[in-house]
Amino acid sequence: MSFIHLWFTGYYNPAKMIEELRSKPAPHWGFYGQFLRAAMDSLLLYLPVALMGRVPPMPSNISALPTDQYYWHLVWLSPLVLAAEWLLASAFVHLVLRLSGRRSDFDQVLNIGGMSVLVVGAFILLWDWAWITMGGLDQYSLGFTHLAISLWGLAIGTVGLKRILGVPAWLGLLLNLLTIPIAVPFGIMFMRSPL
User: Fold this and answer.
1) Each residue of 30-56: b (16+ CB within 10 Å) or e?
2) Domain spans of the chain?
3) pLDDT tens-digit series, residues 50-84
């Protein structure tokens, strides 16, 4: 199965996507997934928003990056932040599995995480543009919808850990839930809503 076919399989049959991912080069496909998701956010969300002259609803946390130019900076900064979130979340899952005496393969954890964020992230990108087009309420409402959509990623990650690494479903779900308070605060420091 090709990379693109595997990606789209994640929309209609996530379990099959995970089964196919098991035999793919790790962490290569996870990196490709994360890279593609970050490139889409950078070029298809933040670049157009910057070209439209929008200003983020919240000020920049980095004094060297002025708020009125922040979306331009997110064109190059967002791939770095998203990659760091992917690595932090995957490292956390791997570390907890190893410390609990369970089998883990960091490369496979990276593969699962990278493909999961691609499937969910591409959908969120389309959702963001639909939200902007419909005149969505505000950045907080958009953030809550992102959390709801991210449940899909929790399911993919849980199935991935269970089928590829033999992690019990309850533990896989718990680990995937715990990656949210690890990755989200880091993202909040740098990322800004497109509204």
Assistant:
1) bbbbbbbbbebbbeebbbebbeeebeb
2) 26-190
3) 999 988 888 888 888 898 899 999 999 999 999 99
